[in-house]
Automatic annotation (TrEMBL):
Annotated InterPro entries: Asn/Gln-tRNA_amidoTrfase_suB/E, Asn/Gln-tRNA_Trfase_suB/E_cat, Asn/Gln_amidotransferase, Asn/Gln_tRNA_amidoTrase-B-like, GatB, GatB_C_1, GatB_Yqey_C_2, Gln-tRNA_amidoTrfase_suB_CS
SMART domains: GatB_Yqey
Full protein name: Aspartyl/glutamyl-tRNA(Asn/Gln) amidotransferase subunit B
Taxonomic lineage of the native organism: Bacteria, Bacillati, Bacillota, Clostridia, Eubacteriales
Catalysed transformations (reactions): L-aspartyl-tRNA(Asn) + L-glutamine + ATP + H2O = L-asparaginyl-tRNA(Asn) + L-glutamate + ADP + phosphate + 2 H(+); L-glutamyl-tRNA(Gln) + L-glutamine + ATP + H2O = L-glutaminyl-tRNA(Gln) + L-glutamate + ADP + phosphate + H(+)
Annotated source species: Thermobrachium celere DSM 8682
Superkingdom of this protein's organism: Bacteria
Keyword Lipid metabolism: no
Short name of one Pfam family: GatB_N
Amino acid sequence: MEFEAIIGLEVHAELSTKTKIYCGCTTEFGGEQNTHCCPVCMGLPGALPVLNKEVVTYAMKAGLALNCEINKETYMARKNYFYPDCPKNYQITQDETPLCTNGYIEITTDEGVKRIGIQRIHIEEDAGKALHREDGTYVDFNRSGVPLIEIVSKPDMRTPQEAKMYLENLKAILQYTEVSDCKMEEGSLRCDANVSVRPKGSTEFGVKTEIKNMNSFKAVEKAIEYEIKRQIEAIKRGEKIVQETRRWDEAKGETVVMRSKEEAHDYRYFPEPDMVYLVVDDAWIENVKNTLPELPDKKRARYISEYGLPEYDASILTSSKALAVYFEDVVKEGASPKDASNWIMGEVLRTLNDREMSIEDIKVQPKHLAKLIELINNGTITGTIAKKVFKDMFESGDDPEKIVKEKGMVQISDENAIRDIVNKVLDENPQSVADYKAGKTKAMGFIVGQVMKASKGKANPQLVNKLVEEELQKR
């Protein structure tokens, strides 16, 4: 029997507002424990919440960018649960009336474009953070009351790869709109996955498990992959899948049971009595719509049509806002879009990946990368030398012109000087000359390579090819 997976994702994104959702405390990450809090976010008796308007604006911005409908009248609700990091013993969230509904994200699969539905986006407050130490468990309430949106997808994904693509597109959209910085390492983007399996062809859903504790998109992909396999093997052994919450254990590479899954009624939701209804009018929605930037899909299409870039290049360059900004800045500094794309897709990203760095960390200024490209195009340096110059630029952040002058890397374009090197190489490689004369054209490529090596990569490649051919004909 063949099985298929049903995957839905719940993503929590911290909003980039300066203050918390119901009080004026800062949302800044870090700080000494329990210094970014007040009676409201600590849930002290008599303290009343006041909704931060910016939170609603940010949430609507995310909803509109994700093709959602905005519900014009909603209310906040209390979700009751008892845990040390929840100071009020309830969380103020939205239950039956989410702010945004019926959206979607498109991903590109091997079968073409696939639309993943977004069921709802609601606003809520974050909890504090439990710190487990040898001498006990401590609680830091700095994060308590930080505004979140929870983005709940429909169960439209069928493979771990589709889930990863959905997350990558979602992250890009949230970054482009500046709704969230999406830093998973700081906890500002967190993802839970709901996974079930069913026989292929069946229309009924299987029993789902929820997976938590995934701190990277790669971890999400691996955890879902493991859970699908675990459930299929259990069914084949005649076991029943139990609805439960599991956590991803990165070290073991497996999901581990945390607790039995709570149902909605376990939280005893009811409308928040300390807050009025939230009413959103058309003018507010229109104002938010007008602040939406060019989103990744449109930017990708523009790079293809306006700059003539291949679809793959355009997809990579628009995959993060910072990378797209860097590319556009290099183009603004005078580099052709194709040259800028080639260098960013090649040396820049390769070096960043090798160092496990992101584009935000790079020392090479866009104007300096554009100047390096210009030095190649005007014949000052060769492509080979340019790669060496880039290595220096990456370490120091220096101007490429300065590096080229200091290290004597200027291209040799003197015909007589290059001809001398060519003849020396030909004298040293009589067998290659004989091979060329015998019709083995590959021998010429070897000779050209030896000339470039002898000139330490500084000889003008076009002149080298021309002079090698000329001297070979004479022999």
